[in-house]
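>> received
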Amino acid sequence: MKQREETPYFRDCQKLGGIQQKDIYLSPTKAATYLYLLNHCDKNVAMKFAKRRICKWDTTIEQDGPATCRILVPMQKKEKCINGWQNVGYEVFYQNKDTIADQKQLNLDYENDAIQQQLENNEKMLGNDFKQQMKNLAKFYQELNKKYRLNVQDADFKERVQKAKEQLQRQRNKPLQYFKKDGVKYVELIHELNQADRRQHTLLDRFKAFNQLKASQFRIKEKLPEKLYNKTVNEEDSTPMNRNKLLKKSCKFLGQTSRNVTDTLKMKFQLKDKSYHMSKQFDNYTPSIIKIQSQSSISFHKKNKTDNEEYLDQQLQRFANRMIQAQSTVQEINTENINKLIESKSNLKQLCLKKIRSKVESTQSEHRSKTERQESDCNRQRFHKSIYYFQKILFAYIFYKQIRLYQMIYLYLQIKQFKSKWFRNQFINKFYYYYYQLQMYNSRSQVSYPQASPSSGRIQKISEKLSTIQIGVENERFQKLEQAEQRIQQAEDAFNEFQEQIFTKLNGLRDQLGKLQKQVEEDKLAKEQANETKNREVQALEKKFENAIQNETQTRKEGETKVLRLLEDKTALLRTEVQKETAGRVDAIEGIHQGLQNDLPKIQEAIRNEANERDESDQNVMKSITDELVKLSNLINVEKRNRDESEQSIFEMLKDIVNRVKVELDQEKKTREQSEEHLLSLLEDTCNKLSIAANL
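>> returned
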């Protein structure tokens, strides 16, 4: 028994396939069971048990494991149980509290199964979505061709097409009736409810077996199908908000405000049919574009939003008019018009995008040139101001023989502000030139005025005192200027850091926008390829349909000729048969008439005799019934008397029994009362004796 239990179950099962014992995959659950069994049994036994394969599991087994240690508690799934057997996929899951890895693996397996099923369903839906749409369109066109019998070779082909257009337009413009209940709109039930009100009331209506709706209970409203079925896009949607944020950031990078951003353009083309209750929506979303300052450059952008909508409506009307046109080559309406329409719309969109991109690039270049000019003008103004200020300092030095320190610092800051090297070099050259002139002037002044005045000593002392005072003041000013310079430097550093952060963010935005553009282009290419393949398939289907229609027309003509010949032959045969039948029927009618004239008096006499016999039999039956009823009434009276007598005797016996029971109960009460009194007297005596004994 042990060897049989350790070997894998169902070795030749078809569900497990041709997997050998060596090729069995040791899953994490099997590893967990192996580690759990190592603490309680031998290593080889645990390994053999972990490697086993099972396709079905008996749910009556509460504990599983090798023969020596049955300690594993299997998990049961009621969904997979059939007649006490649970379908297992190669392995059994156990409820082992000690092995956390097993529980985690169980949860992961459940999640993976759910995700895999969801992915498979999504793939099926995506794969069959477009095919189903094209099938529905093909059915729609086939029914149109059957309904209106459109054929280019007919003389009134254009008139039929025009009538079909008018009828479709009327159906689309015709308002639909509906009513609301609990927030749900019911459109198709109104016709049924009106018909139900007109019908006759049945038993179900009288007993009110079901909750019956009536059109008179609700307020019936009317709306156009476009307003009833089509919902407008919510402006508070998450995706447009994200797009607007990206646009604002890109506009800040280009130096433009958020007011220069246009709304997203949406082009929608809808195909509706009341019989199928389907609506196809081709939504081609154009990426958000920066509006250009010059409105006269591109005619596509208008001044107002309403103008844009009117322009798009005009284009859509043109496309819709081209949708159902008379086709000279094809005999039926097909999906080729839709593909042409999509191609024309995509071409128009690409042309508009090219124009707008070229204009945006030109505006960006103009904006950059303007900013560079402004910077150059600012640098020139600073240059002239600094030279003018330097000349002032030079004249002050000539007249007062001294330059203050903060003035030199101001010159240094002016030099530092220049961004271009040319302005810096020019300013430094001017600085050295004026400085050289100052030195020359000092040397000349020393040569030309060598003599000293008698009051020069006093003047020198006073100048020394003034210089000390001025030095203190200048030191304070210098400290303040240093503090201001430090603050300016900190502000510049913070500004540079902020500018670097902005540039990094904007670079990230550029990368994201580039990725988005690449994705859009890839999607366009994929759509174009899919459209090409579908166009080819549609063309092949059209050719097949044309060949089938030609074959059917030929077969119809041949069949019509054959049917006409057969009809002529059958009509001749039917005429001869009808003539023969009429002659036979006339003879039969004459024979029947003669027979009726002979048999009618006999039948009347037989009817009279039968009536007399029936009357006699009825009288006999009534007599027998009355006799039996009299007998039954006598028997019933006798039975009543017997019952009354028996009831009276039973009642008297019950009275006697009740009286006896009462007497016995009274005697029992008396005896019990006597016994109770006797017991009470005994208890009183004992209590008195005990009290006397206690007192002693």
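>> Residues 490 and 661 are 120 Å apart (CA to CA).
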